C-alpha cells in the first residue's frame, strides 16, 4: 500500500541543501494516517483510552503508547507517523543536528508537534496563503485543542472552554550551545542561508502565530547548527610543545657542565687546568645558545600577543588595562538558589500600593499613544542599531542572524504584527537565561555579582519597538522632565549635564560664600526591588492605554529566569519583584517610575538659583542615582524626609552606607550628621563619593582627582610599551583605548593648560 507520495522541490541555481533540509522540503506535513492495524486516537475533551490492538504477536517491539508492532521496522514507522516518544522526556537531543527540544504533544489536525519534522497539507489540498494564516492566527489559537500525553493516556484541553493548557518546564533542560555564525563580511554564506531558510519556512510554517514563532526559531537553530557548527565550550587542552634542537643542545651542555663540575672537584692539580678550560668553552657555547633561545622566545611571545590582539582588539585592551570586575562564583547551587529566591520573591506582590495624596497626577495627554500596527521600518531600525555580538537568548538565535538575513527579518515582522494586534506575547518570551557578572575584583560570594538576563531576540525586538513608542509618548506629552530624569532618555547626554550642574552649584556656593546642602542617595538593589504594582500605577497615571498596560502586566506576571554558573544551572525562578536588566522595555519603565516619585517630592522645596538666573530642581536623578540640592540645611532635611517617605511608600529603600552628604555654610564645608532609615549618612569628608564618573570630596577642588588621573595615565602608557606589539597597533590602542578613557576626566575635571614647576 502506498503510504504517501514524495514531492521533490528543486530549482536551478539554488544551493544544494543539507540532508535535513531536503527531507523537510520533500516530505511536507500531511494528515495523520495510521497503518492497517492502527486506529487514530480520539480528540475530544474527555480522557481517551489507548487504541485497540489487533496485532497478537509480541516480539519485543512495543511502543511507549502500548501499541505492539510486528517488527522493529513497523515500530519505527508507527513512531514516526504517530509521534510517539518516551513519556517525561523533555531533554534536548544534541546527538543529531536536526532535532531540538520536544514535548509529547499531539495536535488534532496535525501529525506531530515536534521540530524539525515537517507538517504540511496534503499534496492535492490548497494551502492558505501566509497573509491569510496570519489573519486567522487569533481564531486558530482560540479553538485549537492541545493534547497532553501522560503514561500512554492523552488528555485534550480546548482554550475556547476557558481552560489554559499548562506547559511543563523541564528542570534538567540544558542551555543551547552557541552557534558559530559566519562573520558579517561573509555575504555569500548569509545569502545562501537566507534563501534556504525562506524555502524551508515557506513550506513548513502553519498554525497559530505562537507555533510559527517557535517553529521558525527552532528551524533556524537546527539549520545553523548543522551548517556552521557550535562554539567550543570551556578551555581547550593545551598541547605540550616539543623541544627544538637548540633546546636539546642547551640541555646537553648543562648536563656536561654538571658532570665537569663534579669531576673538577675530585681532580688533582694537573687535571684541573684542562678541565677549567673545557668548562669555559662549554659556558661560552651555552651562553650563545641561551641568548639565541631567549630572542626566539621573545619573538614567539610577541607573535602570540599580536595574534591575540588581532583576534579581538577591544577584549585585548580590557585585559591590558585591567578589568574592573573579576573572580569566580564559589557558592553551591543551593546557596545560589536561596539567594535568588530571596531577591526575586515578594510576599506582598498581590497587594496594591496604598493611596498617596502627594503622588503626582499628570494631565490628559495631548498626543495619544501610537497603537497602530508595527511598521517594518521600526523593526528594521531596532535590528540595525542592535549589537551583532550580543549574547543569544534561550532559543540560541542572535541579532547577527536578523542583521544579515533580509527575508527572515521581513517574515519576523509579519509575525510580530500579529502579536501586536492581539496584544499578547508568545509563551517562549516569558523565560530568560541568566549569568553572573562580578562587581569588583576577586569576587567570590553571590552577593558580589550582578545578574544579566538573556531573553529571546524576537521578544527583545518586539519590546524595543514598544519602548520607543512609550518613550516618544512620554516625552511628547512632557510627562518625563529631562531636567530631573536623564537616564534612559534618547539623545540626552545625561552624565555630563548632571555632573556639570552639580559642579557649578558647588563652585558658586563657594565663591558667593552661601549655604548649600547636597545629598547623593543610592537605592538598595533598585532594579531588583521596584514593585510591579508601581510600574503598573505609573503607566496608569501617565494615561497609557489599558491594552498596553495589560500586555506588560501579563509579561511581568509570567516571566521566569534561571542562571548558569560554573558547572550547574539553577531551577526556574519566577520574577515577582524588580525588572530584568537585559529587557529592552525595562529601562523606560524604571525611568518613568523614578520620575513620578521625584516629581512628587518637588513641591515642598525649591532648588538653588544659579547666577545665570536658572533655578535648578531640588532633586535630579540619573536612573536610580539621585542627587538632592537645597538652598539651606533645613530645606535639604525636609526634602530628604519627604523623599524617604515616598520611597518607603513604593516598597523600596535607600542604602545609607553608600549615600553621602555635603553641607556648606558661608562657603565652607561643615560636618553635620544626617540619618536615613535610622542610619547615619557618611559625609564626603569621611568617604569621597564618585557620581557618574566624577569624584567629589570635602576640598571642593580637583587637584587630588587630577593627580589620580595622571598616575592612571602613566600606568596605561607603561603597559602599552611593555606589551610587545608593533608600533601601528600601539598607536591604535592610543587612539581607541587611551583617548576615550582620558576624555571623560578631561571633561569633568578642570585641568590647567600650563603648570609652573619649582
Automatic annotation (TrEMBL):
Pfam families (UniProt xref)? RVT_1 (PF00078)
Q: Where is this region: Disordered?
A: 34-54, 79-178, 325-354
**Bias-annotated ranges (Acidic residues):** 120-139
Polar residues: bias regions: 42-54
Q: Where is the Reverse transcriptase domain?
A: 418-681
Compositional bias segments (type: Basic and acidic residues):
140-178, 330-354
Residue stretches in coiled coil: 243-270
CDD domains assigned: RT_nLTR_like (cd01650)
Q: Which UniProt keywords apply?
A: Coiled coil
Asked if the Swiss-Prot or TrEMBL record annotates the protein with the keyword Coiled coil, the reply is yes
What protein name applies here?
Reverse transcriptase domain-containing protein
**Which source organism does the UniProt entry give?**
Mytilus galloprovincialis (Mediterranean mussel)
Q: In the record, what lineage is assigned to the organism producing the protein? A: Eukaryota, Metazoa, Spiralia, Lophotrochozoa, Mollusca
